[in-house]
Structure formats: structure tokens, C-alpha cells
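Input record (one chain):
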Amino acid sequence: MEHKNKIIKNHEGFSLIEMLIVIALMALVGTFVAQNVIGKYEAAKVDAAKIQLRELGRVLDDFRRVCGFYPTQEQGLDALIKPPVGRECKNWDPFIKDSKVPQDPWGNDFEYTSDGNKYVIKSFGADGKPGGEKYDKDISTDDL
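The corresponding structure, as predicted from the sequence alone:
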């Protein structure tokens, strides 16, 4: 029995300080990993917005091929899902099969400007406001 007690008494565990140090190191490593993951996630949203702008541009070019003009600013991108009002298109057929125009990756509507001869589609980035830096920077079809 005495031999068993010696084994238990000689067995040492981690001290509270050692455990706190390990937890602090794990938190530090987790912070670096989280920053990289969040950065990649936001960069992917920017790439997705550029892809959406190119695709909307392709659909608008198709609209112009069929109708002879781009939707005016007043008609907006809604002219891709419902017949345009004002300057009408005789051969109009829904250009986007969904019942709504897609939003940018941050859940905001794209800004569309057009005079009927040319167009600009814009996403205001992560902050949803004009201007900005990095992930908040505006993305436009003029920049693609």
C-alpha cells in the first residue's frame, strides 16, 4: 500500500499558470487564423461581386441585342425581369428567370445608371456607401 501512495504523491499535474499559458497561446494562434479566414472571406465577396457585375453586363448586352437599347435609368435593372415601361421592347422576354434582380454579396442592391446607350452598374462594397477603402471600396463595371 505504501508503494501505491508513493506513485500517487510523485505524480505531478499541470499548474494553473501552465494551463493559463497554454490557453493564452491557443487564443493567440486562433486570432491569427481567424484574421486570415475573415480576410479570405471578404476577398471572396469582392470577387463574387465582380462576377455578378460581369454577368449582369452580359444580360444587359443580351437585352440590348433583343430590344435595341439598354434599359434607361428609370426602368432600371427591373426591366430584366418585367417588361420595361416607357420605351418598350416588342420582343421582350424575361432576361432573368428569377422573380427579382440579384443583390450584391453584402445584400445591397446594385446601383444602375444608363441613358439607354450605355450603362454603369455599381456595388458600394462591404459598407454599402459610396467610396471606401479595401473591402468597402466601390466596384463598378467601368473598373472591370
